[in-house]
Amino acid sequence: VYNAEKFIHETLNSIVNQSRKFDEIIVVDDGSTDNTVNIVRKFRVKIVKSDHKERSFVRNLGWKHATGDIIAFIESDSVFNRRWTEEVLKGVEQGYDAVIDRRRYYKPKTFIAKMNDHFFELRFKKDYRPFSAWVFKRDVLTDLRGFDEQLTGPEDVDLGHRLLKKGYRIYLAYKAVQKHKGEPTNLRGSIKRSFWFGSHICPYWKKHRNYPIRKLVVFTVMPFTVVWPWGLFTLVMLLYGYVFLKDLKRGMKMKYLFVHPWYVLLTELFFYLGFWYGTFIRPTKRVR
């Protein structure tokens, strides 16, 4: 946690009131300067202190202090349903090496929040194929050496990539629901978030040598086709049609069906603008 006084109480409250209790709860304080630690002390948890580092470092610090054989990484701005641990452990009992829960928005109120929450609902179906995880067997984490501390942003995707590459399996705990408060609730927040992730993605792509060349070309060319309006119009409509058909196939509600493709194109554009910014204008610094 880092300066999480606004939501850490509700997060911890949802954790301690699980139907199947956690064996151990560790809160790693990442050098908070607000009232976070005083709030955490009201709960029976172990507190580990750290200077202000990036999240990959403090996550690794946390699991190395743990004594259990199954490690769950908890977002400090999320609320978990009461049967979360029960549902997660079903994956472990079935022999899976890691588990991912089902993410939703926390009390969505704006149009953007409701639309994205609906998209989460459609995305995390029972046939969803996980590419990242938040719960791991300890020996798997040890084998993978935890999170890559040189990455911030795609560190969870990187860990999932390495996990799957080694032949480990990820289980989707469909009934384990995490309601995340940190999701963007307006267009400005969505654009800002996409740009930030884009500006931090280069080290991950470079590490795994899997640059999405087609998308890079399309979203790089897109801003410059303004000199040829018909070219820009054609490109945008083709992309819009592609996303629209995917949403239609997923079963998206009509009130979001025509808007969501525009939302996707805009956020994707800023993601790739962020990539170019983070790669050539202000390269992402090494974490440590």
Summary keywords:
five-stranded mixed beta sheet; 288 residues; 12% strand
Please tell me about this protein's structure:
- By secondary structure, the protein is an alpha/beta fold.
- The chain contains 13 helices and seven strands.
- It has a five-stranded mixed sheet with strand order 3-6-5-7-4.
- β1, α2 and β2 form a beta-alpha-beta unit.
- α10 packs across α13.
- The longest helix is centred in the C-terminal third of the chain and has 22 residues, at 229-250.
- The two termini are 19 Å apart.
- The relative contact order is 0.13.
- The model has no long low-confidence stretch (mean pLDDT 93).
N-to-C SSE series? HEHEHEEHEHEHHEHHHHHH
Number of strands: 7
Tell me the strand percentage band. 5-15%
Question: What share of residues is helical?
Answer: 40-55%
Overall body shape = globular
Strand order of the largest sheet: 3-6-5-7-4
Structural class: alpha/beta
Q: How would you sum up the major sheet?
A: 5 strands, mixed
Averaged pLDDT: 93
The residue ranges in which pLDDT falls below 50 over 5 or more consecutive positions are: none
- The total count of helices amounts to 13
Spatial separation of the terminal alpha carbons: 19 Å
Radius of gyration: 20 Å
Topology:
Layout: H1 8-16, E1 26-29, H2 36-40, E2 46-49, H3 55-65, E3 70-72, E4 78-80, H4 84-93, E5 98-105, H5 111-123, E6 135-137, H6 138-144, H7 155-165, E7 170-180, H8 187-199, H9 202-208, H10 213-224, H11 229-250, H12 254-257, H13 260-281
Parallel strand pairs: 1-2, 5-7
Antiparallel strand pairs: 3-6, 4-7, 5-6
